[in-house]
Structure formats: structure tokens, C-alpha cells
Amino acid sequence: MRHFPIFLDLAGRVALVVGDGPIAERKALALRESHAEIRLRARFDPADLEGCAIAIGADAPIADLQALSDAAQARGIPVNVVDKPQLCSFITPAMIDRDPLTIAISSGGAAPVLARLLRAKIEAVIPPAFGRLAAMAERFKARIRERLPDLAQRRRVLEDLFTGTAADLVFAGQEQAAEAVFEQALAGHVPSGGMVYLVGAGPGAADLMTMRAQRLLGEADVIVHDRLIGDAVLDMARRDADRIYVGKVRAHHCVVQEDINGLLVRLAQEGRKVVRLKGGDPFVFGRGGEEAEALHAAGIAFEVVPGVTAALACAAQAKIPLTHREAGRSVTFITGHTKEGRLDVDFETLVAIGGTLAVYMGIVSLPQLRDGLFAHGMDRAMPAMLIERGGSPRQRELRGTLDTLVAQAASWSQSGPTLVLIGASVARGIALRDIGTSSGALADA
Q1: pTM here?
Q2: Distances 276 to 196, 224, 232, 338, 339 between C-alpha atoms, Å
């Protein structure tokens, strides 16, 4: 180890920054965030070192930077000159700020770009909520030490709090509930109850999941997942996590919704961290609302983690703008599921609104959809398209009008989940696709 890592308390102390440019400004800003009193100078004057606790140089003539380094080191003041390691008595690391937690990464000046790249990787897996968790622990620190004087016992309780329900609640934004768990720990009881995360897996591509969803998959004790969740997504889970399949196919449910609700409640009551993994977004035709209601009624803590919903993923891969100033100023999401054989939709309002219409699970009821829209005045030439397995490498597209889609859908479909898009923006998307990349080669029409 070439450099000894240390964190300086600069609150209320003077920090000298020499330089006149963006780098010097950034250094001054970082020092202000440490509550230092900033002395910012364009050129170096030895008198400016009087009373300083630290000195940094950047964006200044080399003669000034050399003089700053010599004078500071002669007085025993820590000095850093940006990109001039030979003039430094200390180096500044790449930092991850999760106040009051701070993570510093240094290559000892050998490869600062590599240190920054590592910072980005670490930052992606350490959410800002860790700072809130640390701040909460600080608020309870004195009381926990008083209540639990034995160090080993105190460490065990804190480890339970930092890895259990309290941490889950902080990460879910439920800090009052987390404080209640800390209070229970002070009374000698750490709750054993689990937590459920209703997580949107997006359209199927693992790299379209949110970072929060990826992190939770790696932490979950059990994963309850649907049919549309692919292996690439499930492979991100802990190897020892239990996986429970509750998939649904149109008109055939492997597990009925009420049983899924009960399963989530039971698993959480067993003290397990449960990820309920759904394709797309849990609250967009994913029955996440029903599961949330069941969890709330049972007193189970839960968090909803949004995902990229099918309409967004399908349109993006097909290069179709769901809204466009010249082709559609609104977008409406509806489901194509029928009720007692009838598509229960307000066709008159849909036609009046205009814009882009995104119909989830609409291929079976496509004839009813067409007839209802045309009966209420939609132009029969309105552009439309089917997108099967949208947002995945297997996305397929069929373009035309509602009449041509109805005629071709049965022979074209490969029984994958299909979205119907209707509106002038569909034609606008063809123009964008023509000037885009060759990824549109996946289309069938």
C-alpha cells in the first residue's frame, strides 16, 4: 500500500484552492460539501497558506503550482496538485458519496481513469438509501450502546438491522416503519417478518431492467415469477434462491391470482425476502395492484419497483414515437382482454381522444377492436401494427391497417405476447426506421 487512506475533518477549517478554471471550481465545490471554509485564488501567494488545513492546486501556471507545493510541504500542510503527482503530498480518490457513508477508491495515482470506472461499477450497486440507513443508525447509536453494552451482542443486533427488515424498509422509502424496527430492537426484539418486492422485469432483455431490480434479484431468498421472465433475467438471481413459477397463458392460469396473493403473504410471514417478478411493469396490466392490496391487508411490508412496460419497449425497438407533435399528442393504454366474450371498451372516447392507442394482449380480440373503432368514426386507413415479443431479440412486427392486420393475424402469429399499436405515429415510425440502424431487420413486414 503506497498511500495511507485517511478521511479529514475539514468542518470550519480553511482550505486553499489555487487556480482559475473548471477543475479548480470542482475541487472547491467538493471541499464546500465537506463544510470547509474556501479560500479560492487565481494565483499563488504564500500568505494565503496562513491558517490553512489543506491546499489544492489546478488551472494555474506551473510556476505557481510548484511554489504552492514547496511552500505547503515546508509548513506541513497537505497539498494536492491535480495531475502532478510529483507535486503532491496526498492524492484525492474517486469518491462515492452516500452521506454519512463515503467510499473512496484510489490507484495511488497509477491509473485514475480505472479508479473512476471502478467507482461507477460500485456506485451502481450501492443505492443512495445506504446513506439514509447509516443516518438512522447514527440517530439510534447512543441508545443502542446504552441498551446493549456488550459489543458482540450489539454487533449481532446491528447486523440483523442492516441486513433485515429495517434495511428493506429504508430502501423502500418507509423510514418511519424502519425506525419502529429499530425501536423494537432496543426492546430486545428484532422482527422476523419478511418483505415483498413487486418488481418489473421489463420486456425480457436483462439490460433493460432497472439497477434496483437487478440488485433485489441478487438479494432475494425466493423469486415468484411469470411465464414471460427469461433465463437471462433469472440468471441474475442468487444461485441458492428458491424459484416459484406461477405463469399465466391466455385463458389458462397455472396458479390463480388469489393463490399467488396468498403465496406472497405466506412467504413473507416466514421471514423471507420475496421478489415477485413480472414482465413489463407491475402496475400496467400486471395485477400488481391486486397483490399490493393483499399484502397491505395482511400487514406485509412491500415495495413496487417499476419496469419498462411493453408499449415503451415495443415502440422503441420498432423506432415508433408513441407521441409526436405532428402525428399524435397523446397515448392511451388499454387491455384487449374480453369480459364474457365482449371487449368492454369505450370506443367513442378512444376515437375522440385520438393520438396513439396501445392495446395489450389484443390479438385475439382484434376483430372486435377494429369493428368498435370503425363504428365510432376511426379512419379505416389509420396505420396500425402488431408487435410480438416486443423489446426482446425475438421481436416481430406486422404493419398495415386494422383490416389487413385482422386478415393476416392468425397466420402471422407465433403465439407470443403481442401488442397492437394504432395511430398516425405508426406511419411516422416507418420514416424513422428507414433512417435508423439495421436492427429493423427483425420485422416481418
Answers
A1: 0.72
A2: 7, 5, 16, 26, 26
